[in-house]
Every structure is written in C-alpha cells, then in structure tokens.
Amino acid sequence: MIIVIRHVFTAIVFSLLFAVLAIGTTFLFFPPADWSDVWTQEFANVSFVVWVFGIAISIGTITGLTLGWYWKQRFHQLEKKLDQIVKGQKVTTSDEPYRELAGIHLRIDQLQEKLRRQAEHAQRLSTERAHEREKSLQEIVVQERNRLARELHDSVSQQLFAASMMMSAINENNPPEDAVFRKQLSMVEKMIHQSQLEMRALLLHLRPVALKGKKLHEGVKELLQELIQKVPMEIESKIEVFAVDKGIEDQLFRILQESISNTLRHAKATSMNILLIERDDTIILRVADNGIGFDMEKVKTSSYGMQNMRERAFEVGGTFKVISLPNEGTRLEVKVPVLTKEEPEND
C-alpha cells in the first residue's frame, strides 16, 4: 500500500506544479486587466483558483492511484516469483513489456537456473558418493552389524518376550490381592513392553543396513512388511514405483528408517501412515503417526536424529519439514526435486 500512496503523493505534487506553471505562463503572456478578478471570479459559486487546484489534485490522485496500483501488481509478481524460488518451486517465465523489469525477470530466471544446477550437482555428488560407499563398504562392518542384530534378537529380544509372557500370565491368571502390588506388576509389564519396542527399534537400525541392490520402493515395502510382523501397530502405506538416482534412494530410505525408529521409541503411537510418491517432478516422503507428539521449540535444537534427517534431505537438494503438537501426533515430510539431466553436447 505504501507504493500506491507514494505514487499518489508524487502525482499530486507534479499536477500542482504543472497547474501553477500553466497558470503562470498564461498570465505572463495574457495578463488580466484586473488581478483581483483572478480571486473573485467564480464558477458554480466556487472560486476559479479553487477549481484549478482542485482539478489538478483530482487528476494527480487518479493518476497516482492508477500508476501506484499498476506498479504494485508488477512488484507483487516479482515477489511471488522470488517466493517460489525460496520454496523450491518452478518459476514460470512471462514476457515483460518494460525493459527495466525485463532485466529483473532475466536475473530471476538466471538465479533459478543456477539453483537448479547446484541442486543437480549436489544430487550427482550424492549419487557418486552412494556408489562409492557401496563399492568401498567394508564387509566386516556389515557382518558385525548383522551379528549384533542376530545376537540381540536371539538373546535379549527373546528374554524380553519371555518376561512379557510371564508377566502377562501372572497379571491375568494369578493377580495378587494387594492393589499396590498388582499396580506395580502392571507397571513392570508395561516397562517390559516398552523395552520390546526399544529393542525392535534398535534392530531396525541395525538391519537393514542399506537397500542392498534393491530399488527404493522394494526396500521400503520389505521394511514395512517386517515392521507389520513385529510391531503391534496399524500401518497404512502408499508406495509408488518411480525411477530416481541411487543417491536420492539411499538418503530417502535412511530418513524413513530414522523416522520409523523415532516413532517406535518415543511416539507411543497406535497407527502410522507412510506415503512415498512422485508428483510434478518432486518426490514426496511423508510419515505421520497419532502419537503423543512433542514441543517443536524444545526438540528443534536438541534432537540429533532430527538434525540428521534434515541434513540428509538438504544433501540431495530437498526440503525437510516436521509438524508436531503435544498429544496430537507428528507428521514428517521430505520433498526432493527430480531434475532432468542435460545430455552432453557433441562437438
């Protein structure tokens, strides 16, 4: 609104100056016989001077409003394009009739192209690093992780399951008469159940280590199938098949692993919804649960897992967003642009 007011004020000033200049020039070449007639001459009971300056102010106001509103719309379009670039959206180009703004639009297009190339370069580097990691991955590390997962599953996990069954049998078949003791046993059963969830989350971190030659949708479906078998939670998913670079696949898969692990350990959720789709040259990964949520201001700076997922998303030129409220669940969303690679020109 400030730009409109500025144009109105400027137009009124110039209109008044023009009116003064026109009247002065007229009186210079055609001086009146009696100067008092200038002030006393009236039209429709209004002084001639008031008419002149009133018309000048009216013309200035109308002109200022027209120009101000027009330029406000032009600047609004520029601001909208810059906002689209900040949000990672594709900016549509348009012909600009004014040379000054055409230059700005050209710079915006160049900026968008530069950001696109940087994102493409980051994705290419991520893909190259992913291939290098797969080639140079030490087999002993993989074997050690699998050994730890196997031992935890065969020993600690089985013992927790046996303890959970025993506590459940005691609480159901032979509950103690003492109400306090009975409440304590119930709390112990809940603690064992929570420990089982913690163990499953830990095993989820240890296995699978990576996609291991699978496509992203194959690895995600296998991960969710294993999760459904081991975790008493309602899991809904929509996984689409699409082609994407190996580096992006690897980072998205690890973000999903971290997100599911956080849900199992902290959310106390009963249902989880997972979405992995491609829309408008953008890959969307969304994980939502109905858990206890958290205060985002407290977790924003202290959560290593959250920072790790955010860095993985940024590494492939994507965006990372988390929305959570206490007792209202959590939703995580990652968007990664799919860039069309330019074919090398033949000389």
DSSP helix count? 10
Unreliable stretches: none
Structural category = alpha+beta
Largest sheet: 5 strands, mixed
Indicate the percent of residues in helices.
55-70%
Task: Describe how the helices and strands are arranged.
Layout: H1 2-29, H2 36-40, E1 42-43, E2 46-47, H3 48-86, H4 99-136, H5 139-173, H6 179-206, H7 216-230, E3 234-239, H8 246-267, E4 271-279, E5 282-289, H9 296-299, H10 304-315, E6 319-324, E7 330-337
Parallel strand pairs: 3-4
Antiparallel strand pairs: 1-2, 4-5, 5-7, 6-7
Helix pairs in contact: 1-3, 3-4, 4-8, 5-6, 6-8, 8-10
Describe the structure in your own words.
The protein has helices at residues 2-29, 36-40, 48-86, 99-136, 139-173, 179-206, 216-230, 246-267, 296-299, 304-315; strands spanning 42-43, 46-47, 234-239, 271-279, 282-289, 319-324, 330-337. With 347 residues, the chain is an alpha+beta fold. Among the domains are: 2-86, no CATH class; 138-209. The chain has a 5-stranded mixed sheet, covered by helices on one side. A two-stranded antiparallel sheet has the order 1-2. It is elongated and about 120 Å long. The mean pLDDT is 77.
Short description:
The chain has helices spanning 2-29, 36-40, 48-86, 99-136, 139-173, 179-206, 216-230, 246-267, 296-299, 304-315, and strands at 42-43, 46-47, 234-239, 271-279, 282-289, 319-324, 330-337. With 347 residues, it is α+β, with helices and mostly antiparallel strands.
Keywords:
single chain, 347 residues, alpha+beta, five-stranded mixed beta sheet, 10 helices, 65% helix
